[in-house]
Amino acid sequence: MTSFTTFNSRRLLHIQAATSLIIVGLWFVLGVGNVRAQAITEGFDNITTLPAAGWFTQNNSMPVGSLSWFQPTGVFTAQSGGATSYIGVNFNSTTGTNTISNWLLTPNRTFNNGDVIKFWTRTVTANPFPDRLQVRLSTAGASTNVGTTNVSVGDFTTLLLDINPTYNDVPGAPPASYPDVWTEITITLSGLSGPTSGRIAFRYFVEFGGPSGDNSNYIGIDTFSYTPGAVMVTADAALDYNGDHRTDATVVRNVGGGSGGQVRWFIQPSGGVAVQGFDWGISTDFFVSGDFDGDGKDDITVYRPSAPGNSFFYILNSTGFTLTLVDLGQTGDDPTIVNDYNGDGKDDPAVYRGGAAAGQQSTWFFRTTPAGNVNYVPWGQNGDFPNPGDFDGNGTADYQVQRNNGSGSGVFWTRLSTGAVSVVGPFGTASDLLLPGDYDGDGKTDICVARGGGGQILWSYLSSATGMSSPPGLAWGLSASDFPTQGDYDGDGRTDFAVWRPSATPGQSAFWVRNVATGAVTTIPFGQQGDYPVANYNSH
Length: 540
Known about the structure:
- The protein is an all-beta fold.
- 0% of the residues lie in helices and 35% in strands.
- The chain is built from no helices and 35 strands.
- The strands form eight sheets. Strands 3, 5, 6, 8, 9 and 11 form a six-stranded antiparallel beta sheet that branches.
């Protein structure tokens, strides 16, 4: 919840008590595809579907020939499936006699030590023109940078495997030779410092190749799989309403008009699914989000404060679209700290109550079951700002507040779920906006602050993986108009810098997202002037 006015006042949550919940119904509720799993299995039955699944190709051969990667029509049959259900590449990647460098990149994933990559490959029987294949790793997130020349590797600097690097013209067992029968290759990842976002690349790399060259003929790749080597805690992307581990563009709109008017939620699920609309809540509610039923999908939620005993979270469960009503808190409490406080894989309704006067205790309240006991943890004091998250990565939310150190700088006091206490700082100013998220992809919440400067929003975060701060004051967004809406919009396991920019021009309102690892920019046109982006609730 934005709690100060350094940025434009339209970004402030000015939602207070109301008297009734209005539920008109659901509209445009369409079927959602299967959850995108971390694992990958690809049989190459139809390679025209690869780009939509996140695969990428680029031919850096010089000059580029008549073919890149293709669906074969003969030569030899597939390892499994239909006769042509594999992907091929050959000497026509270039012309004459030249160096071939033809790339096939897998979808972006977050890799860990022990993860296993498998695929089958072969060349033609008794091949007289030696082939070669490299398998490379990039640790630069979703980057597809393979350079621009036939000798460059871009971000794919880690060589995992080199099949037939000396161009042995007698087919045989890899990696010393290239097999002329289908052979399964297994690679187990190691040497990573922790969870690492990146891609795997196949590079058909053949010197003195081409139609006139002494090397390069024809290879196939079939039945590719990537399997996490151990049970992995997948980052819980904020506002992930379809369970694909990506933040979904979401705004709410007062369609009823006036104070207390009916609110409609507009959600654009990632992956090109049609916009969904849900009438849930009224304009004076707090709009929050979390996976309260543990089905891997966030639930549409509003909080309506009132007198003690009459303040409720109204949760629309994503499974079955049923209502869960949770009584908690009172007017003046902050409901934007919803999180998983008992480590059971479900978010818990929670509120933060600041100390009533200078020096007085602040308290975190939460329920782990809708009608269960109210739990409370005293942490913080009057004047502190809550900064919710799981700072040690153990799957249970911790308690953190930002406090003015007396000279205008921010100091972060943390009580872990284990009871351990730590202090971090100074970092940023005491008036900075707090934008918690996992910006380095290590499974732990990072401290992130932002402030307005020179008409822009300046972001800085402390990496829990390295203990180092990001370059200070990275500019992303316009301080006069934009709403910070950090989240993992590309599913790489790292929180992205993001803002929502409203516009009076129809069709011009949009989410602007910057990938922290690569700097890649994505624009998601969505919403209209007067809407509120729900992801902004997690600013404090």
